[in-house]
Amino acid sequence: MKLWTPRLLALAVSAALAGSAQAEIAIDVINGSEISLEGLMQADGNWFDNDVADLNAASPVGNDGKDSEFDMRRAEVILKGKGGRFDWTAGYDGKANKWLDANIKWKLGTNYVLAGQYKQPNSLEELTSTRHNDFIAKAMVTNLFGVARRVGVAYGDDSQNFGYQISYFGRELTRNLNQGQGFGGRVYFAPMAETGNILHFGLSAVDFDTDADTARPRVRPDADQATIRLVDTGNILNADRQRTYGLEGLWVGGPLKVQGEYMRSRVTRTTNQQEWSGDSWYVYGVYNLTGETWGYKAGLPTTNLPDNPSSGMWQLGLRYDATDLNDGAILGGKEDNLTLGVNWYWRSNFKFMLNYVKVNSSKYVSSLRAELDDNPNILEARAQFYW
């Protein structure tokens, strides 16, 4: 895979640049199915102003221990077919060497049956397309409790103002990644669902078997390239199942979007040992300085193209997110982060992002017999090309 992925990406980039800027490359129509190619490439840089822990400590994955880290974040190629009663998709990330969405959808009006690998229905931010995430790193709650892609089968309905999905799932398609059979569901209601005027509410729940009877809730400090987690429960042994409930809300008024989520998760155990519960949440606002707004489709916000492609679309964003992993004798720690972001969408294939993250964390350290505060600062940048 490593040998041919760069060549495939180079060909896809050349094809996209050769024509007019667009969201996808049309390939052919076969038996009424429109075949297209999509792609996403992201290159990230992180600069760490450490407090106590070395957030970029040397690791086997290539981090060199310096105060800055640069790497390709994603290199995705996705083949899609749309038309008639069936839609299908097959995607692969050449950077992570893993399968993305690989599924087929049988459309029954607004209802559908979905089979294969797909994102599970329990996180508004995770379900939103990665290319249009409003901040470089997803919020802590998403990285902690979002189940993301698993192989399974689902049934749902996506009308304009109301929808739901119920899902049964197993492991990831790529070997040696996330495992554990379970089920989940999400329901949403949007009393206002017009472009530029959106009000959305949602509820979700997932319940799954823990992998190897062990659970370990932990999360990076809103920095994808950090090797250290400032909050970490450690291994919770004899874990049986993990169940997570989520609340989500979204409001769009013209050029302003406000979004938030709350999740609470519980790990049950096969013995009489203490169970564990923790929670996490975020709220953020994004303002389009150039006046554009957002659309809405199938229970998710959609990002519009710049009104003026040559000057692009400029956004300002502010996010607050918090996590509490302390429960009884399991002291995973607390963390709250403030993220300030600037995004520039240029034409319809390029996006540039700059984030500043102020981290505040506290965790009990047994060797000190005391709480240890660790409050670093992080600067992040991303260059993105997509089609």
From TrEMBL:
<feature type="signal peptide">
    <location>
        <begin position="1"/>
        <end position="23"/>
    </location>
</feature>
<dbReference type="InterPro" id="IPR023614">
    <property type="entry name" value="Porin_dom_sf"/>
</dbReference>
<dbReference type="InterPro" id="IPR010870">
    <property type="entry name" value="Porin_O/P"/>
</dbReference>
<protein>
    <submittedName>
        <fullName>Phosphate-selective porin OprO/OprP</fullName>
    </submittedName>
</protein>
<dbReference type="Pfam" id="PF07396">
    <property type="entry name" value="Porin_O_P"/>
</dbReference>
<keyword id="KW-0732">Signal</keyword>
